[in-house]
Sequence to fold (382 residues):
Amino acid sequence: MENFVMYNPVKLHFGEGVTDKIGTITSEYGKKALLVLGKGSAKSSGAYDQVFSMLKKAGMEIFEYSGIKSNPVIEDVNKAAQLGKDNNINVIVALGGGSVIDSSKIISLAMKYDGPAWDIVTGKHNPTDATPLIAVLTLAATGTEMNPVAVIQDTCQQKKIGYGNKLMYPQHSFLDPTFTLSVPRNYTAYGVVDLIAHSLELWFGEGDASLSDRIIVSIIKEAMKHGPDLLENLEDYDLRARIMYAATLALNGLTGFGKKSGDWGVHEVGHCLSVVHDVPHGASLSIVYPAWLKLMKSRIPERIQELGTSLFEANNVDDTIYKLEYLFKVLGSPLKLSEIDIDLSDAAVKEKLLKVMILNKASGQAQKLSEDDYVKLLDLMA
Ligand code: NZQ
Ligand code: ZN
Fold:
């Protein structure tokens, strides 16, 4: 087992009605709030009205930046940070899914910097201060509500970067499962796939930590038990709550203590699919994971088998991969690029993806991927 430091300062408020306290809590950081939103779901679901009225009741002045896109882009971060600077904002309230919260994390740093936000995620500028951030989660998937990571894209450069900084932990995160009742079937499925994929990235990481492994297996089993039911009962509060809590634990540090690292190669390849074809994050993972496991089955058969035995009582490595694919299929998430109309028989399409994988150095930590591996992976995903 590796040495570790356990640190997570996020105050997480979980359950129905928790945002009733958001006004008083947010106003402790000052009276001017920048409310960051996605393309419209928070307004149509009613979450916006609930949060807005609580902030107003606490005497907050609210400035809005809306329109953050799924698979968020750095342009929005720069514009929102400028709005924050121009209005001497004291606190940011992010209301949305991972894309809104990730963007807000970088906005919180960019508001304290005079240059472009991309300098921060590329390490050209090292931030020392951040505007306080309050997160209100509306989609169970990424775990961003309780971690210090943000993932952002620069479309011109064809790069999607995961950036971590302790300054980006939200001060408070509000998780009301009723806010997720309106998430459509496809994004609900992608969220379940994402939490399973986070658990798997840690399972296949470096280091031997048996308790963390057992936690990983428990989280995936929770998703296996309740994910398919949720897909049939999208408005079931209790199932929404169970999946929401599982998604938070899948990437808040808990599954990695005692390990050196996760692998993250599947995520890095998935990000390339999102950069080139704007594939929803979870959908990219249900396509890349089975292909990655097929590539790895001769390299790490014991580790794949151990997973299969723990999760599915699988007979062998192939059976393990088959059962994971079956799970993703039951959830309704794609397994092949062809299912989302990406045609790799078109040489230009394949070439472009390969180029972006090389550019983004999508290698992973424990099982480093080579350029030959990229070609094999693409063939396995076709
Ligand atoms: O834009 P709006 O209108 O809000 O619609 C969103 C979007 O279309 C919609 N949605 C969100 N909450 C909803 C809702 N629709 C109805 N009802 C609600 N309550 O869902 C769509 C997807 O939203 P998005 O925020 O993009 O999804 P997700 O939470 O999966 O976030 C994906 C982003 O997070 C990054 C991904 O790379 C991707 O950019 N990740 C962040 C991580 C982190 N910070 O730790 C780790 C992850 O591995 C991941 O990489
Ligand atoms: Zn993910």
Remarks:
- The chain has a mean pLDDT of 98.
- Residues 38-42, 45, 70-72, 96-100, 102, 138-139, 141-144, 147, 149-151, 179-180, 182-183, 187, 191, 194, 251, 267, 281 surround 5,6-dihydroxy-NADP (ligand 1) (CB under 6 Å).
- The chain has two domains: 11-180, 185-381.
- The first strand starts at residue 11 and ends at 14.
